[in-house]
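I had to read the description of the data format several times before I understood it. The format is easy to grasp once an entry is in front of the reader. For illustration, here is how one protein appears when written out as sequence plus structure tokens:
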Amino acid sequence: MSGPVASVGDVAHNDTFARRVRLDRLYRNGSGGLLVVPLDHPVSGGPNLHSGRHGSLDRLVGELAGNGADAVVLHKGALRHVQPRWFRDLSLIVHCSAGTGLSDPDDKVLVCGVEEALRLGADAISVHVNAGAATEPRQLADLGAVAAACQDWGVPLLAMVYARGPGITDGRAPRLVAHAATIAAELGADLVKTVLPRAGADLEALMAGCPIPVLAAGGDAADGAATLGHLAEAMRAGAGGIAAGRLVFTNPDPAAVLRRLAALVHDRAPVHSR
């Protein structure tokens, strides 16, 4: 990989100085790969989903900042409970989508705008889209609108796109995963997070077919060893990095699992490395 800005910025037709600065912050490790830890889960999963395991959200974010994470994804209100000092060496991605799952588990709505996220100190924005949901048209429109605002403000955009909905039986099917990644690229995202197909799929073709970096979603936290193996396979196939939340914060020692993920992303090390 030629470098962090080239891996993303070369596909942009109207790059801006502000966007390049923020991309440099995201890719400050210099490896060309990104390790992102999403912590937006309590809105959909319930209170104390991660902070209850580790004493507080602030303590958890502090562990992430010192053990190899490049960025953390947080909702706007969560930032009130996190010390700014952690973001000296950790980028902030403000998540602009939300859905509780108490009504339609596949629905996502915008709860934060790009200007508001920038006022909070965001280095990047993230938006969630479930392709195949009953509300897919509105979610696609939201992604397009946020992408336009990000372009205006020079802010990198991470799109979390999944094939999920009443008619989706296998969201990991290679055709659907490739479609999800394409949606993100076509509607203006700089990065896409999605689940990847199971072992045996042609991951290299999927990565090569997407013009923006693909971050492999962390997936099932119940079988950590298998998930780590799958993520290592994704990195070997050309993934642009890993975005793992539950795999990290459900572990009794999040720092330890984070260091293993950092070795995969930053050093392209084998899965057994520590």
In short: Residues 1-14 have pLDDT under 50 and may be disordered.
